[in-house]
Amino acid sequence: MNSRKTNRIGIAVVEHQRQFLIGVRPAGVALAGFHEFPGGKCQPEESTEACAVRECKEETGLEVIAINELLYEEHSYDHADVKLHFWLCRPAQLPSDLTTCNLQGFHWFPVESLPELQFPEANARLIDLLVSAFSVS
Fold it and tell me: Which range is the signal sequence, renumbered to this chain (predicted)?
């Protein structure tokens, strides 16, 4: 590890009926064009669980409840060193139809489609975990 700052990241892996809430990173940011789960940098005294819930609300408008931490991953990208805390979350209240509510650019993807999407490198173990845990065999 080098001397640059490491960012603690809380990520909301929001699951509903074997579908996951996923967006695409916008142009002009690191890893632009890659798929992502809602999440972001933790505030100084914020837990990764609280961060995941807060970031999901800010990015998608959807209130979620964190269930448990699925995975912890450390990764060094060219732009930053990150400590990723992936939290399994569920919607706090279900609108009549989750698929039609406005989620600010995020959309529901069935678990089977996750391996076909282009996620950042640090998400590889998470995608494998979700596919094995939520796919119907």
Answer: none
